[in-house]
Every structure is written in C-alpha cells, then in structure tokens.
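The protein record now logged underneath.
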Amino acid sequence: MELLAPAGNKASFLAALNGGADAIYLAGQQFGARSYATNFTNDELEEVLSIGKIYGVKVYVAMNTLVKDQEVESFLNQVEFLYHHGVDAIIMQDFGMIALCRQKYPNLVIHASTQFNSSNIETIRLLANMGVKRVVLPRELTKEEIAMIDVPIELEVFVHGALCVSYSGCCLFSQRLGGRSGNRGECAGSCRQFYQLYQGSTKIKEGYLLSMKDLKVGTDITKLPASVTSLKIEGRMKSPGYVSFMTTYYRQILDGKQVGRKEEEDLQSLFYRGFTKGHIFSETDLINPDSPNHIGLPIGQVIHITDDKITLTLNRPLQQGDGIRFVESKKGMMVNFLYDQYDRLIHSGNKGQIVKLDNKIKLQTEDTVHKTINANLEKIEDVILKKVTINIKIVAKKQQPLVISFQDEHHIVTYQGTVVENAKSSPIEQERLISQVSRLGNSPFQAGDIEVEMDEDIFVRIGELNIARRTLCERLIGKRLNDYPEPIITDVTYSKIAANDSPLDIAKYKLLPRNVWQYNQELQEACCLSNIIDATKINAIGSYHLNVFNAYTAYYLYQLGYKAITLSIELTEEEMSNLAAIVKEKFGHIPLIVKTRGLIEVMIIKGNVLSLKVNQKYSLKDRMNRCFPIYYDGMQTHILSHEPLWLDKEKLSADIIIREE
C-alpha cells in the first residue's frame, strides 16, 4: 500500500519526503480545497515535482474545487503547466473538468477527490469507465463496503486526521451562513461551532454537537482490504513537525515495526481532540461534544498559584518551547521560561518533578495541564535526508576501457573511460576502487549492491573515478527527471444539441435517497438523482446536490443521460444566467433547472450522531439563535438551512426552468 502524506508548504513537503512517504499531495495557489494553507507557487510546484522524480516519490496536485465558467481557462492553463512538468496525478472534484480533461489530455492521470462524493458503487464504476485512475473514497464507507468494490480503479482511503461530519462535497453549511463555500476551499468550520439541540421547545443537550473526533486507524491499517491502493494522512493545514511525525509513524507500521507508548503519547501532543477509527471500522463514538480544538496530552497538575508564578507537579516531561493548555480555565501559553522549585532556570522538567512557570496569563485555578505543542517534534531539518539506493557495477580489465554503471529500479547509465593499464607501481586495490566510486556524498543516491570485475595489478586514475561518479550521478538524475509520458493534447469538439419539443414535467420526478451505497431496487420511472451515475438507460434528472457550477458539467451530465440538470444553489442568479447562456451558445439546448424557493439541505450525515428518534422533528440552535431543522430518517441525519432560499426569478434567464419548492 502507498503511504500518502500531506504538504501545505515546502517544509512540510521535505518532512513527508524524509519521513518515508511514497507519495505527497499538495496544491497550488488556486483550485485547492484548502485555500487557507500556504500552498505552492508555480515555481515551487516545478521544484517539488523535480524533487519527487529524483527521489522516487510521487507528487499529486489537488485542484479539487468546483470551477466557475469564467475560471475554466485558468483551470486548464494550470492543468497544462502541471502536465508539462510531469505531475504524477491531479486530484479533481468538478465533474465537468474531469470529463473535459479526460478528453483533452488523454494520458493525464486524474484522481477523483473525496469531494466528488463517490458514495455509490455506480459512481465508482462510471469513474473507472471514464478512465479516472483512482477514487479517493468517502470516509463514510466501511471496510466491508470497500472490499465489495469490484471495479478496476485504484482505491485511496483516509487513515488519519480531521473528519468532516457531513459527506464531503455535500456540505453547504458554511456557504449558506457566510458565503464561504466548502466546495471552493473556503470552509468556515460550521461543524466545529457550539449548538443546542431542541425537540420542540425542550432543550435536549448542548455542546460542540457536530464536532468530530480525529480519525486514527493506526496499527489497524493491516486489517484494511487488500484492494486498497493508498493510505492517506489528512493535514495540509498542519505544521511540518506534524507531517514529519505522522508520516514516520505510519511508515513504521507499514514496515512492520513496533510503535510504542512514547509514539502514542507524542502523537497526542501533536494534535488530539479524541480519536476514532471512524466509519471505516463501523465505530459509532464519533463526536467530541466538549471541545472542537486540540486537547493535547495530560502532563501535570497545578498545585500552587501566585501573581507571579504557577507551580505544577509533572507526570510527563515538559521543556522550554512547549505549548500548554490549562483545561478547566481554557487558557493556554508557551513555556518561554521554566524554573525548578527553587526558582532556578532549567531547560526541562521530568516526570515527578515540581516546576514553575511565569503566570503571564493571570491563571487563578489549580488546573489540569495538557501539552499542546511539543517543541522536540517541531524541530525538523529543512534539508533532504532521503537517499535512493542504486546498484553499481565496475569493470576494470587490462587493455579494455574502464566501464562503470549505476542502476536504479528503472534505469541504467554507463560511463566508458580510458583503457585500463598495467600498474608500474602501487596497483589500485578493489577496496579503494569501490570506496572511490561509491563516495556519493551529497548526491541523491546511496550504494546498494556493488559488483566488481577487475584484473590484478592494474592502474586506474583516481581523478577519472571521481569524474565517472559525478557524470553517472548527473546522467541518472536526468533520466529520473524525464521519466514521464510525453503530454498529449487533443482538440475537443462538440455537436450542438437540438431542442426537444416534448415538455419536461419536473414535478413527476421523485428525489431518490442520497448517498446510498448501492441501489437495491429498480430505479424509479422518473427519478431525481443526487449521485453522478450513468443515466443513459433510466429516466432521470439531476438534483442541486450534483454541484453543477459550469456549462461543461451540465453538458457532460446530459451526455450521461440526465434529461435535465439542476444548477448548484451556491451560484448567484447572474452566474446561473451566464451559465445558461454559455450552454446554449456552446452546446445547444440542455434543460437547466434552478431551485428558487424552499429550505436547503446544508448537511447530510451518515448514521445518527445526535441520537435522534426516527423521523421526528428537532432543531439545532447556534450562538446567534439561528435554528436549523434536523431529522434522522433511519439511515442518515439531515440538517436544513435556517432560512429558505429566495432567489429573484426576474434575474434568471428565460431559458432556465424554475422549480419552486
């Protein structure tokens, strides 16, 4: 299984590389679903793509946001930039862009993002038929469901990190509240807020009721189906220290090495809001209602407080540079200065020791102390430590040219030198020959197997050996840098779709349940679908849940057999009308629907995370007293918007079908 690590900047990229990642995923300055990460400039992307090729680590670039029509040209320009620089794969959410890029760039490797919401086996089958190489599976799938996937496509699963409570790609909460779209990489974290749950006027409970614990599969990765291709660590917003530790942690497990108590405690000090094995292992204890933030590792107890000093007794080590949190008072601080019980400055304190801190936060409570920043783990080298093992062959025969070869897993490069002569004095020894050729120093390589064929009593110039070694390193680097298929770019043409004189009665189309793993019965005669599947043999229209943001998505869905397509409610009236105009001009007559009235489903959650009674009405109230209707249908929890959608129909194009409900 591939170990796939995150990188939000170059330091994190190097941390993942050194930690043993087989592949690293990251994003450029646009179109990535973590727009608040530092991310990479094009110059940096070019650099890390080269580093990845030299050191044998794949680089996947996330362009996994929904794309508006005016952004398509920029999106394709960025795809072509990455394509020409040998990107190993591009991760995409937008269906229109996936379909277009599969036609326009035939040998470009595309991974369907978890934001694509491949929660239905028919969706996964469609992606495989389109030529998408890999699907990043929803975190809602169980290992048993994953084992059932009999589709020729690579499967990527999350094994560690933050969890969305809603199905990814299905959350409109942040966008409806403040205009920050999770589908555009701008999520405001509505699930991490404080809520009160009501049934009627009765308050049932309160807390951070939608805040998920973090996923930690840990050593149970060995129990995942053998069909899983890639194990993904979440964390493009995390520090290089976090990336380094988590990559090393899972590398050890994959390599069959033991991880002990210290590693588990260090992991908790890096980031912890409770751990769960998640839906993949069918766990139901998923929510931490007490805190949406990093809790950290318990390290001690406050035993005395003055205006100047806080005195603690430690049950785990603490050192200068650590970050700590006082749990009950909800205050935190950096340990800039640490003292022993006699007020002498010290660098660190150990288990059982009494230490003092400056009371710069005006603490007044004899509180429990947790470590939230581990200074030791954040100290990582900003250099490349990884080496690529190569095999070396040396042939030094009298009256024949000196021949030296370097060979990696895919390439061989050869140096042919001067004719080997008889030694007049001080013949070169085999050990010296090997030592000189394998002195690879600051190159990306280290010597593996070394084969030598040599005569006795020969003379080889040391200078020539040095030249051969440097030349072979440069040649092998060049081979590795250019080891990717030549990009192919084709023209994509479209035949105009003629108008259909038969009126479309959208009222007769019934919305099927969302995100069911598979359809256990025949699709209805007239159904409204929320999953992207092959609809050529059924009578179906698409719901607003399909995230139609651009004309290409509308066109390619129509080619899949959808009789009509509902546009995303995240678009403005002007954007909807512009989209309709582009569709008509470029593709012809495709029936487009806009929902203009009614409540919006802002979240759909697998299972019953709030312990609701089936099909009874509840509401969630936030700190601003906004109330969100919520119900559990026996399989999934649905949260609706606090106020109805109310679009101005007069601003919509006459070519759009209005749906008021």
